[in-house]
TrEMBL record:
Residues 38-57 bind DNA. This is Transcriptional regulator, TetR family. SUPFAM superfamilies: Homeodomain-like, Tetracyclin repressor-like, C-terminal domain. InterPro entries: Homeodomain-like_sf, HTH-type_TetR-like_transc_reg, HTH_TetR, Tet_transcr_reg_TetR-rel_C_sf, Tscrpt_reg_YcdC_C. One of its GO terms (molecular function) is DNA-binding transcription factor activity. It holds the Pfam family TetR_N. The lineage of its organism: Bacteria, Pseudomonadati, Pseudomonadota, Alphaproteobacteria, Rhodobacterales.
Length: 206
């Protein structure tokens, strides 16, 4: 379904209201997933009326898809910043740090994406099989070239990327569990940064 207000002629107020709606949707969807959220909840979190929300988006499904699409773009941006002309190990470690920082800065967004994947990604099927695959394949090709040149140790590049996703996003998606195990007075993400740097440095050094 096409968003009503995707045209570039949005006024400043319209853009602000759209951002308020997506912010309210993030609160609602990250708390209860797609099924647990309602338009009324989204409107309440956004500080707008339900008719106002429905002026900008025709349905809960449309709001959810818009939010997930923008989230996926943000999530993939660090992967696209890997520089093929850069120093391989430094580029990979920078990507790990960027993903870990996103878990610190955007835990609700990470949990929302996890909800969608666990439900079979009904709102992201086309994107996951198209744009996501292309971006990951392009990054994997760069990693594979570096490995062929002897500049990184030989590992499966796709599974390397998957491992970075799981090792970093775990700290957002399972924050309560991590903090319960570590106990008070510790910073899981600072500790994770040192651990993951050592782990991937050892794994990938040629």
């Amino acid at each position: 379904m096409t968003e009503r207000n995707s045209a570039p002629s949005l006024s400043r107020i319209q853009q602000k209201n759209r951002e308020l709606i997506l912010g309210g949707a993030l609160e609602a969807f990250s708390a209860g997933g797609f099924r647990g959220a309602t338009i009324d909840q989204i409107a309440r979190h956004a500080g707008l009326s339900k008719p106002n929300v429905l002026y900008y988006f025709t349905s809960k499904d449309e709001i959810h898809k818009a939010l997930l699409t923008s989230l996926l773009e943000m999530w993939l941006a660090p992967l696209q910043r890997i520089d093929p002309a850069g120093e391989p190990l430094a580029e990979v470690l920078a990507y790990v740090r960027a993903k870990l920082q996103m878990s610190r800065d955007f835990p609700r967004e990470s949990r929302l994406f996890a909800y969608e994947i666990l439900e079979g990604a009904p709102h992201l099927t086309e994107i996951l099989g198209g744009g996501l695959r292309q971006i990951v394949d392009e990054a994997a090709a760069v990693l594979r070239r570096w490995m062929a040149e002897g500049r990184l140790a030989q590992v499966d590049p796709h599974h390397l990327i998957f491992s970075i996703w799981s090792m970093t996003q775990h700290y957002a998606d399972f924050d309560v569990q991590v903090r319960a195990v570590l106990g008070p007075g510790r910073d899981p993400l600072n500790e994770a940064a040192a651990f993951l740097d050592a782990l991937y440095r050892k794994l990938l050094s040629p």
